[in-house]
Amino acid sequence: TDFFLPIEDDPFLFGKIAAANALSDIYAMGGSPFLALAILGWPVNKLPTSEASKIMAGAAEICQEANVVLAGGHSIDTPEPIFGLAVSGKVSREMLMLNSNAKEGDILFLTKPLGVGILATAKKQKKMKLEHAHIAPDSMQKLNKIGQEIPAYVRAMTDVTGFGLLGHLIEMCEASDKSAEVYFHKVPIFPEAKEYWQQGCVPGGTKRNLASYGSKVYSEVEDDFCMQILADPQTSGGLLISIPEEKEQEFTTFLQENQLPNIAIGKILKKSEYVLFIRN
Q1: Under a CB-based contact definition with an 8 Å cutoff, are residues 159 and 22 in contact?
Q2: Which residues in the chain show pLDDT less than 50?
Q3: Cβ 113 vs Cβ 189: under 8 Å
Q4: Could you say which DSSP state residue 185 is in?
Q5: I need a labelling partner for 269 at 20 to 30 A (CA). Which of 121, 132, 211, 216 fits?
């Protein structure tokens, strides 16, 4: 179950993004979603209900793409618009993916570029160039369907959302009683993100993330952008996947065939003083 305030002005697009984000929780556990219920909060005295219908239409389109039945839901009067889905899925016990089974030596992959938080902030600050306006929405509405097709040898998986890559990797490491190293120059990042970061488009969530877990990270990269993009809060972000080292080439091919980022971004290490080490 996931729901939030609008992050896009277009209600149809907001519905699509909110639906993709909620479905990701099932994909991140290796499951196949099959049923969703809408959660809608709407200021009935402030906004026309026709706009709420557009949100529902966007969500319905994404559910159709995912072969998920959107079987109604519940709505209430709220001061601000809120929308999301409660999703049910299925997975065999053998293929259930958790974030707590990463092993020393495992290789890490990330299936979507980082930078959605910075790009969304640039739009809010009215600094977004027209030719860049599609980048974040295109990424956020893209389904993480690869999660339901993941090979059986995958050891651990989670989706990268509000805590950023660093936060969710820390969760994986602590749940697995391990540390990890991240190769910054190999992490997929929207190239446009640095341009807006340089203009001060840093989400408040980035600063809260770093205040929360920054002490657990040791960085060899002397660049503020490095830590801030790795802590950039994502909406409907990619899957963070841990696989055995001997399966790296096979998994790289699997990702290539699915047209996803296919460069290893890091490695699981023996537990040490810091949870994460950022290498250049």
Answers
A1: no
A2: none
A3: yes
A4: G
A5: 211
Cα three-residue angle 61-65-66, rounded to 5 degrees:
115
What's the confidence (pLDDT) of residue 36?
A: 98
Please tell me the class of the 2-94 domain: alpha beta
Neighbours of 117 (CB within 10 A): 28
Tokens of residue 253, six digits: 């091919």
Q: Is the pTM of this model over 0.85?
A: yes
Confidence at residue 2, expressed as pLDDT on a 0 to 100 scale? 84
Which sequence spans correspond to the domains of the chain?
2-94, 97-279
The percent of residues above 90 in pLDDT, for the chain, comes to 96
CA dihedral 230, 139, 35, 243 (to 10 degrees): -50
Given CA atoms 180, 21, 256, 194 in this order, what sign does their dihedral have?
negative
CA angle 135, 62, 242 (to 5 degrees): 70
In the chain, DSSP finds a helix count (H) and a strand count (E) of 9, 11
DSSP state of 130: G
Longest Cα–Cα distance in the chain: 59
- CATH no. of 97-279: 3.90.650.10
